[in-house]
Amino acid sequence: MRDVLIHADTVRSPAMRHEVPLGIPDAFLYIEHDGRRYAVITAFERERVAGVAPDVELLPPEQFGADELLRSGAKRHEAQLEVYTRALREISVSEAAVPAGFPVELADHLRANGVTLHVERELFEDRRRRKSDVEIAGLRRAQRACEAALDVAREMLRGSDHDGGVLRFEGEQLTSERVKAEMQLVFIAHGAVADEFIVASGARGAVGHDMGSGPISAGTSVVFDLWPRDAETAVYTDMTRTYVVGDVPDELREYHRLCKQALELTREAVKPGVNGRELMQIACDVFSEHGHPTQLTKKPGEVLDSGFFHGLGHGVGLEVHERPWMSVVGDDLVPGDVVTLEPGLYRAGYGGVRLEDIVLVKDGGAETITDYPYELEP
């Protein structure tokens, strides 16, 4: 069994959060050796870590001479590097796999002291693909928060006056910023956190990850792409719906029809063993048959700004975008994968439509976690 090292905090590192499911803002060293798990970590976090990962053996820096090093004049980072080196020597770790984001400074120091390190990106990505029961529970909570927030946004759209122009809600101009502020309150009330999300009206909705800003108008598309994470588990969800207030242009109605068709066909095909590239092909076939360019039909080197210019989907978990991928390059799906399906059609300078559900891959098939209507009118 390959030894493993991770050095990170659990707030920014999904690799570390997967091993120690707790919010810890300061980096520490996690070790796997000979079937045992260790953490070199300060007393400040020992009790909390023991509560969520009781099998992790907690090693205080003092055990490896941290106090003496600091008193002798070593800088904090120098003492830390030496403590980690001594800990690995005592545990008998001489070779280990590390994630792609392993700190270069620490890697250089360990290698200079006889520890061989191998960067193994896929090893750490694969560890997180099969979601645990705790993570699935967090996913479901985040998704319900997502749906509750969109309920509030739709009420604001429905309750707006427009007369063919900019929407007004309760006497004031309705903006993306105002809608997002109300949605944030709902996320918080449901135990979820959203650092950012998309409420993009009109042409902004055709610009990838433009988060949206300014007034919302009638007769144009409003793309809501929401990816809050559960505060308890840090697990994300991801959902997109598109709405038009007032008269719906035929072009947007057709985009919506094709996106829903692509979503339904790809969802029916999700099961263990299917490759994400195959699912991408299903969606692209729907669009290309109706004359829309896609990532699989464009010429090599061509840059799309209209049509279906992005991938079909991606894995979701402790990162909002992680393996498996469903795009020009795909991964074979496995039970426990959580994936999005998000077909979209756009015209640059005009707007577009995107629909997105989140799906749990199970033995023999899949479960759609998203439980929300698809209507184009709010």
Helix and strand pattern: EHEEHEHHEHEHHEEHEEEEEHHEEEEEEE
* Overall morphology: elongated
CATH topology of the largest domain: Creatine Amidinohydrolase
Our count of helices gives 10
SS-based structural class? alpha+beta
Task: State the oligomer.
Answer: single chain
Q: Tell me the fraction of residues in β-strands, as a range.
A: 15-25%
- Give the name of the CATH architecture of the largest domain: Alpha-Beta Complex
In the predicted model, the low-confidence regions spanning at least 5 consecutive residues are: none
- Total strand segments: 20
- The end-to-end distance, rounded to whole angstroms, is 54 Å
Strand order across the biggest sheet? 1-2-3-4
Share of helical residues: 25-40%
> Which class of the largest domain in CATH terms?
Alpha Beta
Rounded Rg: 24 Å
Keywords summarizing the entry:
single chain, 378 residues, alpha+beta, Creatine Amidinohydrolase, Chain A, domain 1, Creatine Amidinohydrolase, 2 domains, 10 helices
Account of the 3D structure:
The protein has helices spanning 14-19, 43-52, 66-71, 76-91, 104-112, 121-129, 133-158, 176-189, 250-269, 276-288; strands at 4-8, 28-33, 36-40, 56-59, 95-98, 116-119, 168-169, 172-173, 192-193, 198-201, 221-226, 229-230, 239-244, 313-315, 322-326, 338-341, 344-347, 351-354, 357-362, 365-368. The chain is an alpha+beta fold and 378 residues long. It folds into 2 domains: 4-128, Creatine Amidinohydrolase, Chain A, domain 1 (3-Layer(aba) Sandwich); 133-368, Alpha-Beta Complex (Creatine Amidinohydrolase). The strands form 8 sheets. The protein has a 4-stranded mixed sheet. It has a 3-stranded antiparallel sheet with strand order 10-11-13. The longest helix is centred in the middle third of the chain and has 26 residues, at 133-158.
